[in-house]
Amino acid sequence: MPGTPTAPVPASPQAASPPAAGAPPRRRRRADPAGDVVRWAAFSCALVPVVLVVCGTSFGGAAAATLGLATVTAVCRVLLRRSERAAAEAAAAAAAEAAAAHLAKAAGSHRSGRHAGKSAPGE
User: Fold this and answer.
1) How far from chain centre, in Å, is Cα 16?
2) What pLDDT, in 10s, does the model give residues 3-47?
3) Is the model's pLDDT at 2 over the cut of 90?
């Protein structure tokens, strides 16, 4: 009804309750785009033969298509993982290089003692 105040709906008890004692803490799912691609490819490897058989293709043809898709999926998975490792190594090398440059720059700025040279006018 318009004009009737409504009470806020309380959150579900499951959403508000902390994890049970002894239960492992919930972790956020790590972003894994390559894993998502491989999962979708595996799904298609299972779905395509079913669709082919339903559409009238022979079991042998569907099996050959499945074998080809599985091979392509496996090769793509290997290449994706290799590129992820290379990107992680490059990022680590860049971070190490930046840290080394920072340390080298900071080392010269923290020298103590007087500088060599004239200490008074006319010397």
Assistant:
1) 28
2) 555 555 555 545 555 556 666 666 666 677 778 888 888 898 889
3) no
Question: Which residues 6+ apart lie within 8 Å of 77 measured at CB?
Answer: 34, 38, 41
Distance CA 114, CA 4 (A): 80
Does the pTM of the predicted model rise above 0.85? no
Q: Let me know the angle formed at the C-alpha of 8 by 6 and 13, rounded to the nearest 5 degrees.
A: 145
End-to-end Cα separation, the chain, in angstroms: 96
CA 105/CA 83 separation, integer angstroms: 33
Backbone dihedral region for residue 49 (phi beyond 0: left; psi -120 to 50: alpha; all else: beta): alpha
